Amino acid sequence: MRWRRLLKFIPTFILVGVAAYLFRPFYLDFSPPAIQLKLFSERCGDRLLGSLNAMDDKAGIAEMLVEIRGENGFKQPIFSGKGRRKGIEKELSVDLRFVPEGRYKLIAEARDASIWRNRSSSQVEFVVDHTPPKLDVRLTPSSPKIGGAISIHVRASEPVYPGMTVVDPNLFGRSSFTFHRLDGEGKVFLAVLGLSLEGKPGRSSVYLSFNDRAGNRSDERLEFDVRPVEFGMRFIALPPEKAKLLTDRRLMEEDRRRLARVRAMAGSERKLWRGRFLMPVEGIITSRFGEFRVYNGGLARSRHMGVDIKAEEGTPVRAANDGIVIFAGRLNVRGNTVIIDHGLGVRSHYCHLRSIAVREGDEVGKGDVIGEVGSTGRATGPHLHWAIEVNGRFVDPIEWTRYEF
Prior knowledge:
Glucose Permease (Domain IIA), 3 domains, 6 helices, mainly beta, Immunoglobulin-like, five-stranded mixed β-sheet
C-alpha cells in the first residue's frame, strides 16, 4: 500500500525536476556579466566614440547602465535598459559639445537575471578637450618669386595631424600639398613647394588646417606677394659634332626614359638637408634659371631649368647638401650626371661632369666631392649645370643658398 501512496507524488517529483532543470540558470549562475568597454581615443573634443559589448550566457542581463561621470560630480546617462537579454552590443556616439573640459570616466554597470543578482562594472578614463591647437606658421621666403620655392614651416602647441590644404593651382601646378612631420611628437611639420615659371605675380595665399588628437581643428590662411622675374634670352651655337643632340629624338627619348625611372623613385620621407645649400663649385654664373634659349639660329628652343657655373675642367664639384645619390651615370644631353635626393621631394642635379666620384646609393655630406667639372653632353665648354627639383618641378637653385627652406 505504501508504494501506491508514493505513486501519487511521482507527477509532483517530475514537475519539480523539470522546473529545477529549466530554471537552473537563475539559481546556479554565480558569475556576473562580462563587459567590454572601448573608446576610439582617450582625448575627445565634440564627440565621444566607442563601443560596448556585454554578455551573460546563463541567466542573461537584466539591467544595464552606461554613463559619464566627472571629478566634479558631473553625470550624464548614455544608455540604460531593462529586460532579460543574453548580450548587448552597441556603438557609442555621444555629443560632448556642452560637457566642460576635464577628466572623465565612462562607466558601464550590469546586473544579471539570476536570483543572486550578480553585478559587474567596467570603466575607461578620457579627457574632454575643446581647445584647438595653437599654430605658429612661417613662410620662407615671405615673398617668393616666379620660378622660386617656398617652404611652410608649422609648429603646434600639441601633437597634431595635417588636415586640408589649398593653394593656387595656376601658381603651383597643384591645388593641395602634403606636410611632412619633422619630430617624433607630431608638433613640427614642413612642406616645400615650387612656383611655376608660367605663374602670374601678385597676391596669393595658402590655406592649411591641423587637427589635434581630440579632433579640434585650427585653420590658417596666409597671404603673400609673388614677385615678378624678367627672364632673358640666350643664343647658343653648338659645334657640328654636338648639333645632333638638338634634333635626334632617339637620343632625347632615351634620356627621357632613364630620367622618368629616377623621377618615379619614392625618395626619402625624411628631411636630409641641413641649413642653406652650398654652391657646388666656385665660378661665374653664365646662364641663369628660367632663361629662354635658342640653339643654332632657331634649330631648337628650350627653357633653362638650372644655372650654369663656368669653371676650369677638372675643378672638384661638391654636394650642395646632405643626401643620397639616386643617379650617377651618363646621359646624352646632360652628359655625366649625378642626382642627389635630399628628402621630402627635394633633389639636386649636377650635369656635364668630366668624371663621377660617387655611386648610386652612396650617402653624401654637404661639401663632399661628387665629381669634376667637364663639358660632356650638350655643352659648348667646361661648366657645371646645377639644378634643384621640388616634387618634380625645377626651381631657381640660387635661392637655396640664400634661404633655409
